[in-house]
Amino acid sequence: MHNSQYQSVIQALNACAAACDHCYDACLQEQDVKMMARCIRLDRDCSDICKLTASALARNSEVAKTLLQACADICRECGIECANHKHMQHCLECAEACKACEDACRSAL
Known about the structure:
The chain is mainly α. The chain contains 4 helices and no strands. Helix 1 runs antiparallel to helix 2 (37-58), helix 1 runs antiparallel to helix 4 (89-108) and helix 2 runs antiparallel to helix 3.
């Protein structure tokens, strides 16, 4: 696996991690934080797996494909959860980033 062929995937991973971090922080500012608990947890998980996967791809890790699969699955779950909060712009933006990242991960597999 040569990391230069994965530059677009790494960019999608980094963009998704940033969107999840922003969403996580914005959800903590919502009036009913308890209602946002699942979204907050998935944002954190998604951000973490995206960062780990980007790092693994950049260094040609032998577990990169395993991480790509896990990342795609977690991005899917996070995107679905964020899309449920249609009245929150940060969640909608996160859902879009998660979908783009999921697609990028799956295409890299």
